Amino acid sequence: MKIFRFRYRRRVLYGILKEEFLFPVKGSIFRNYKIEDSAIPISDVNLLPPVVPTKIICLGRNYQEHAEELGNPVPAEPLLFLKPPSAIIGPQQAIIYPGMSQRIDYEGELAVIIKKKAKYLAENFPWQDYVIGYSCFNDVTARDLQLKDVQFTRAKSFDTFAPIGPCIDTDLDPEAIQLKTFLNGKLVQSGNTRNMIFKIPFIVQYVSRIMTLEAGDVIATGTPAGVGPMNPGDRVDVQIEGIGTLSNFVKKIETRR
Ligand code: MG
Fold first, then answer.
1. CA of 2 to the centre of ligand 1 (A)
2. How many domains does the chain have?
3. Which of 154, 221, 225, 257 has its CA 20 to 30 A from that of 196?
């Protein structure tokens, strides 16, 4: 099942996709809901980010080839950092190139979407009960600032640096799926989730032992090799087998008077 969040006639709705139509849901997608009969053509809606998280937890260096391409060792434990919820944008929205940076990179990633509160999960917990599904994510990074600063906050947290979407796929088996990133239509990243150093069940349990996860929270599971810069005017697509394609474009910052 593919769950979309969208704006239609000034209302923000969740809906389930069937062919080219969205069927709105009543209630919470995380708990109980009913699917309404009225169908809305997907071409008539504005897609929104599929979740409104309380936090976005990201893994760094979770694919060996990517750790190597930036000259970093493979971590012995998951390397975590946060992006603020204010960085979230949805499909077709602009990634704003900040004036503070001279190099911003795409990082195509698989995002895990949390289904319900998770705190101190035990080993061998039924992890599927805590995951509603998966989405495409772009961990946009100001690479020059990441190298300059001691930690990642500035480089990872600019507004618009967390594109996510287009939907939550609830049926995906994330174990061994293809992840591709295209820059202006050209393939620049091609990886498979089977090459993740830390796997999803372990990651969910590990993070839950640090911070309480809430419904809608996002865990971005790291990027494969092939990261590179984007420029104003570029279009970037993160495509994950079974989920779909998250498309965004890069725009220069508009200074406010
Ligand atoms: Mg990343």
1. 24
2. 2
3. 154
**Residue 257 covered by a domain:** no
Task: Enumerate residues with CB within 5 Å of ligand 1 (an ion).
Answer: 107, 139, 223
Question: What is the overall mean pLDDT for the chain?
Answer: 96
Domain that holds residue 194: 49-252
Helix ranges (H only) for 63-152 are 64-69, 143-148
How many A from CA of 97 to the centre of ligand 1? Answer: 17
What pLDDT score does 150 carry? 83
pLDDT of residue 257: 64
Between the CA of 224 and the centroid of ligand 1 the distance, in Å, is 9
Q: Give the distance, in angstroms, between the CA of residue 104 and the centroid of all CA atoms in the same chain.
A: 17
Domain harbouring 26, CATH code: 2.30.30
Is residue 72's pLDDT more than 90?
no
Q: How far is the CA of 44 from the centre of ligand 1 (A)?
A: 33
* Distance between Cα 220 and ligand 1 center (Å): 7
User: Rounded mean pLDDT of 166-185?
Assistant: 97
Angstrom distance (rounded) from CA 61 to CA 73: 8
Torsional sign, CA 197, 202, 208, 213: positive
Query: What is the Å distance from ligand 1's center to 60 Cα?
Result: 5
What separation in Å is there between the alpha carbon of 250 and the centre of ligand 1?
18
CATH code: domain of residue 137: 3.90.850.10
Would you give the DSSP letter of residue 106? E
